[in-house]
Amino acid sequence: MIQKIVAHTYVLISALSTKFSKKMATIEETSIGETKTLIGILILSGCRRDNHLSSAEMWHQLAGTPLYQAAMSERRFCFLLRCLHFDDAATRSKRKKTDRLASIRNFWDEFVSKCHIHYIPEDALTIDEQLLAFHGRCLFWMYIPNKPAKYGIKLVMMCDVDTKYMLNAIPYLGKQSTTLQASKGLHQGHYFTKELTKPYFSSGRNITTDN
C-alpha cells in the first residue's frame, strides 16, 4: 500500500518540481521510508493534539516538538502533503462520476479489508457512527451540531467490543449512499449493518447496534 502511495505521489512531484527554478532537497522524489515518516508525523500530531496547529507552530524552534524537526524540514513536510496522492489522478474525474470516494477508494477498500483479515475478534461486536473532524473540500462532509467536532466526515464502523479494534467501516457519502440503500430496498440502519457484518455472517457472534 505504501508503494502505491509513493508511485501516485511521484507523478505530482514530477509535475510540480518543473516549476522550481533550481533543484532543491525539498522537491526531491519521495521513498517508502520517507512516506512512512510522513504518516508517523501525522499520527504523532494527532496523539499530541497538534493537528490544529500550523506547520510553522509545529516546527517552531522553541515551542515546537523536536521529533518533527528531526524527521524532516517544515518545507519538505508541506511539499509532501501537497503532493500526497492515493490514486491515479488522470482517471479520477471519470471515476468520481459514479463514486464520491474515488480519490481514495482503492486505498480505503484495501485498508479496511486488511483490518478484518489480520484480526480475529471476540464474540461481541458493535456498530455505531463517528464524525471525524474535517474542514477540507469534500462533497459529503456533514454538520452535526450535537457532536464534539460538529463538521466532518461520518463513518459507520463495526468494532470489537473488548479491544475497540475497528473491523470494518463505510463512509457516509450523502446522496450516493442513499441511492445504494434504495436500490437494495433497505433503510439506512439495515443497509450499513448488513454491509458491515458480511465478513462475519454465520460466525455465531453477537452484534449490538443503536437505532
From TrEMBL:
Where in this chain does the record put each PiggyBac transposable element-derived protein domain?
22-211
Top-rank taxon of the source lineage equals: Eukaryota
UniProt-listed Pfam families: DDE_Tnp_1_7
Q: What is the protein's given name?
A: PiggyBac transposable element-derived protein 4-like 8
Q: Specify the species.
A: Homarus americanus (American lobster)
Q: What is the lineage of its organism?
A: Eukaryota, Metazoa, Ecdysozoa, Arthropoda, Crustacea
Supply the gene name.
PGBD4-L8
